[in-house]
Q: What sequence folds into this?
């Protein structure tokens, strides 16, 4: 209860600011990520059962449920600390490769966001770029390897372009989301070069990559939370 | 003392492989296994790996990690990011078949070889032939 009072004082009112990512908006986004991942749990697992070990939906759902639980029980004064808590939760609870990969994404992004009460599109794009660099350094995936990177690279490129053009946060995320969706669908014909799916070789072609799909869903949550 | 850390998707596999390798290692080598996700299912946990690594670093001057595949490798690398640079310099990851690699690493480590040599020998395990014509 106290938390709500403090947030109200801090934000002035309950309405979320659509132009800046502040503490309240970031928490609303995480709630949305959790809901979207939960709603798509079976879908992600189904995609992963075709070319992986059929645990992506279950793992991601467990990870983000734990992450939001942790965030709900804490009080934050900067958005970097929220991202960091999400990173730690994902790394310890997801279980599959997605844990260290998404954990690294949020961890690296958190370093860029540390000490910031709010982020505009430019700062968010920088944080996401750092996160993506961390994912690539850890997983060594190249574009076209049929991984989450295939959704994230075009999305973050679009986010940066939008930031340079002076787009609003919401418009920037809309453009990023459109590119992530395209990148995700473009993984369908690809042959997997990384992860469990790579053991299938040519047989991995014809299936949409579960990691690229969860990356798309996470960006979708960012966009939808701002839309509301 | 050299430590060998076996990281598997299954806690049982990790502990079992560590047990088999320990038999070859003698007193001078500590072989430990860690695996499974936080709920005891199949997977790996960065937090668990970090905890075991930190503990091992208290008694071992160096550690060779032998992960099974995929997320075991990624979780290990992510766990290393939480160590200090000094601690990190004491840990090396071997790209080896997990059981054979752990056994050969244990034997090599028991002769007092440095971690680089132990890693190299563990990695040579993929050339092992089990069936001889």
A:
């Amino acid at each position: 209860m106290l938390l709500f009072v403090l947030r109200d004082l801090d934000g002035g009112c309950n309405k979320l600011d659509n132009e800046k990512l502040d503490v309240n908006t970031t928490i609303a986004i995480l709630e949305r990520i959790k809901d979207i991942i939960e709603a798509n749990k079976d879908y992600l697992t189904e995609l992963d059962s075709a070319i992986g070990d059929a645990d992506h939906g279950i793992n991601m759902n467990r990870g983000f449920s734990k992450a939001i639980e942790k965030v709900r029980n804490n009080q934050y004064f900067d958005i970097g600390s929220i991202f960091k808590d999400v990173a730690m939760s994902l790394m310890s609870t997801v279980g599959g490769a997605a844990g260290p990969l998404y954990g690294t994404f949020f961890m690296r992004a958190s370093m860029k966001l540390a000490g910031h009460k709010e982020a505009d599109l430019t700062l968010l794009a920088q944080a996401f770029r750092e996160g993506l660099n961390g994912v690539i350094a850890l997983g060594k995936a190249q574009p076209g390897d049929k991984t989450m990177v295939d959704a994230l690279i075009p999305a973050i490129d679009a986010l940066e372009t939008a930031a340079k053009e002076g787009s609003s946060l919401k418009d920037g995320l809309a453009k990023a989301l459109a590119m992530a969706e395209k990148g995700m669908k473009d993984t369908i014909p690809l042959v997997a070069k990384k992860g469990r799916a790579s053991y299938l070789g040519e047989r991995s072609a014809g299936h949409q990559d579960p990691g690229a799909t969860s990356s798309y869903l996470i960006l979708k949550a960012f966009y939808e939370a701002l839309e509301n | 003392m050299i430590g060998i850390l076996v990281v598997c998707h299954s806690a049982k596999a990790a502990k079992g492989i560590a047990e088999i390798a320990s038999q070859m290692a003698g007193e001078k080598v500590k072989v430990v296994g860690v695996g499974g996700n936080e709920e005891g299912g199949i997977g790996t946990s960065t937090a668990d790996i970090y905890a075991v690594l930190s503990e091992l670093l208290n008694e071992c001057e160096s550690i060779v990690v032998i992960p099974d595949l995929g997320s075991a490798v990624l979780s290990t690398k992510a766990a290393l990011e939480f160590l200090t640079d000094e601690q990190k310099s004491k840990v090396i990851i071997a790209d080896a078949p997990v059981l054979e690699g752990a056994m050969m690493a244990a034997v090599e480590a028991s002769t007092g070889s440095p971690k680089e040599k132990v890693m190299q020998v563990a990695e040579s395990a993929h050339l092992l032939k089990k069936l001889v014509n």
User: Anything to note?
Assistant: Chain A has a mean pLDDT of 91. The interface with chain B takes residues 53, 55, 59, 62, 88, 91-101, 103-104, 107, 138-139, 195-196 of chain A (CB under 8 Å).
